[in-house]
């Protein structure tokens, strides 16, 4: 049961970026989380969105957990460019750092090295479960906002603790997913992109229609939370509006 704020770790601008410059970017991110932590229950850290080179989700997650031990910290784990040994090492490190869960997803191809080793997220979660990792942490899989339930059989049989959805725009989308999957014991975490001018480019890229909740996003988020008990709030380009919205909630 949580309202979760999503963050993108700092970009690594260039290969010759100094450690001091990178530490300053990380410190700025940590400060923002400290500011918003009073208005949310958890933070989710993404993994190289759009293939952009960033500080690793695991590294950022570990720093956040150290500073905010009572805050739920989850991370994304992109499997596109990793083998199972590396994945198991990352999972083990996250457990040792007492992180609260991992969203296993295909991920976007790296701009520098767009490799794809062919791993399927649902099969990765299934193998991790068989190895006993699920007894020590929570695994999530991603879900479309309007899923075809007949085509997500592999995701369901992989037995994650739950699903984080792609961005949604209506209560009906969430109700449909919840009606189908919550009775089967899955936790459902819908993702809401906050409607602001600074986030318009993200909305256009995602072909998102936020007209139904643009006037009152706090009310919309509360409606979603009432259905699922969880909601993931993302505002990639407008931290001030995210802080204001979560404070209103």
How would you describe what is shown here?
- The chain is α/β, with parallel strands linked by helices and 249 residues long.
- It has a single domain (2-248), classed as TIM Barrel, CATH 3.20.20.220.
- 39% of the residues lie in helices and 18% in strands.
- The protein contains nine helices and eight strands.
- The protein has helices at residues 19-36, 57-67, 84-96, 121-130, 153-157, 171-181, 200-205, 217-228, 239-248, and strands spanning 2-7, 42-45, 72-78, 101-105, 139-143, 162-167, 187-193, 230-234.
- Strands 1-2-3-4-5-6-7-8 form an eight-stranded parallel barrel, surrounded by six helices.
- α6 packs parallel to α8 (217-228).
- It is globular and about 45 Å long.
- The model has no long low-confidence stretch (mean pLDDT 93).
């Amino acid at each position: 049961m949580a309202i979760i704020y999503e963050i993108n770790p700092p970009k690594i601008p260039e290969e010759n970026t100094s450690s001091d410059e990178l530490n300053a970017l990380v410190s700025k991110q940590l400060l923002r989380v400290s500011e918003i932590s009073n208005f949310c229950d958890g933070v989710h850290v993404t993994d190289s969105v759009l293939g952009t080179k960033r500080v690793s989700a695991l590294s950022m997650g570990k720093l956040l957990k150290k500073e905010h031990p009572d805050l739920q910290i989850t991370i994304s784990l992109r499997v596109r460019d990793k083998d199972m040994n590396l994945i198991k090492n990352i999972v083990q490190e996250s457990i040792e750092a007492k992180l609260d869960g991992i969203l296993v997803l295909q991920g976007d191809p790296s701009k520098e090295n767009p490799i794809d080793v062919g791993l399927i997220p649902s099969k990765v979660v299934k193998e991790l479960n068989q190895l006993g990792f699920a007894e020590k942490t929570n695994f999530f899989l991603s879900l479309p906002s309007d899923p075809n339930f007949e085509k997500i059989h592999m995701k369901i049989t992989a037995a994650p603790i739950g699903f984080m959805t792609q961005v949604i725009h209506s209560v009906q989308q969430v109700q449909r997913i919840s009606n189908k999957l919550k009775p089967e014991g899955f936790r459902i975490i819908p993702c809401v992109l906050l409607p602001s001018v600074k986030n318009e480019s993200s909305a256009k890229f995602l072909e998102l229609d936020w007209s139904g909740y643009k006037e009152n996003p706090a009310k919309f988020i509360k409606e979603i939370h009432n259905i699922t008990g969880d909601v993931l709030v993302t505002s990639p380009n407008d931290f001030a509006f995210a802080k204001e919205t979560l404070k209103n909630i």
